[in-house]
Structures are given as structure tokens and as C-alpha cells.
Amino acid sequence: MKLVIGLGNPGPQYEHTRHNVGFRVVDKLAKKLGWRWNEQRSRAMLASGMLGNEKVVLAKPLTYMNLSGQSVGELVRWYKISPEDILVVYDELDLPLGTIRLRPKGSAGGHNGIESIIAHLHTSEFPRLRVGIGRPTNNRIDGASYVLGVPPTDERILLDTAEDRAVEAVELVITQGINTAMNQINADPEALRKAEEKRRRQQERREQARLRREEARKKEAAEMAEKAETESNPAATAAEMAAKDAEIAKLATQAEFFDEGTIE
What we know:
Blueprint: E1 2-6, H1 21-33, E2 39-41, E3 44-51, E4 54-61, H2 68-79, E5 86-92, E6 100-103, H3 112-121, E7 128-132, H4 143-147, H5 153-176, H6 178-185, H7 189-232, H8 234-263
Parallel strand pairs: 1-4, 1-5, 5-7
Antiparallel strand pairs: 2-3, 3-4, 6-7
């Protein structure tokens, strides 16, 4: 079983803030899978179902961000799972806007929600998926005001795309394991683009080589068929050659006739 926790603050006033990235990711995943938020336990809203062969529970703690560990600790004990079987999704100031990163463990990095979870689980060795919200470009805006703010439209577009990628990342972690998922998720996008372009060129070269080989085989087969026809029916071949010679002679006679007419 896997427990996927999206961090955020409950209430409509926080719904579209940067800090509620985690809530939005698990909401999108539940909607994609057709799961309903129809259970409440350990001060969290829950949605659950099967993903592949794995039982998965999605959770949104209702304790507010800074006390998230209270709910997460209770859920881990209730389901009798180890910290390695949870995945925490949350916003990250120290990642560029729109970037996502997957880690098997690590420090809180100043994130109060993660600090609370570490304190209640008594370990920092649990997987986490961070979604970059970037830092404020205006130095007069403090971190708390920034994360609790609603991003403008241009940022919202990038963040929405990152959340969609985070949904896919969660599915990948559950179905293929964290190591495989990290290799794909944490790769540099530019490096991925170059690798894809290289793969496309290689595929095109292989296809061109295949077409050349196919053309060569067809030509060879035609030549062999022609040769076999010649060897199997030499009389017909001789007749064809005689007919060609007669045609050439006829054309030559016609040419002489026209030449004589021109001289007269």
C-alpha cells in the first residue's frame, strides 16, 4: 500500500495559493482516476483506489500546513506502513517556477509542513515530490506572504503545467518505483529534448537504410527474374533481338529517304 499526501491549507481562501500545490496535485490525480474524497480519518480527507496492483490512499491533511505531521503520523500508524511507503507532495521556494523534483529522503529545507512531518515520524527518510514555485522577484515581499499569495496568470499557467507533470510523476512512482521515476523526472528538460532529437534522427537513418535495402532487394530480384527468363527461353530472346534489329534498320532506311528528299 502507498499513502500519497498533498500538503496545503484547508478552506476556499487558500485554494488557489502557491502553498496549496500539494492539495491541487492530489485533487487532479483523484479526478483523473475517478476516485472520490468520501472518507475522513486522522484529521485528513481521503480518497482511495487501486493503481495497477497497488492499493493507494490519497490524503489532504486538515490541520493546516504547519501541523501537517500530526495528521500524517496518525495515518502512518493507522495503516501500519513504513515512512518509505508514503509520498509527500508540496511547494518548493528553492526550485524554479514550474520545475518538479523527486527525492527518496532529505531535510525539510525550511518548509514548515515537512518539518512537522519529520518531527512526528521521527525520520526524514521518506519520499517527497517538490513542485517549484520560485522565490518572489520583489524583495519587499516576505516568504510567508508569497506562498500564501495567488500567482498571476502567466505564473499560474506554468504552475498548472507543473502540477499536471506532478500527477504523472506520482503515478510513475507507484507503478514503476521511485528509482525509475527519479531517472525520468529529475532529468534536465534540455537534455531530454536533445536525447529525443538524437533518437528521432537515429530512427530516421534506420528507416532510410531499410528503404535502401528494400530497394536493392527488389532490384536484385528483378534482375534475377530477367536473367532466369532469358535462360529459360533463349528463342524468345533471339526473336526479340531480331525484332529490335529490324526496327533499327527500318528507322535507318526512313532517315536515308528523308535525307535524299532534302537534297533534291
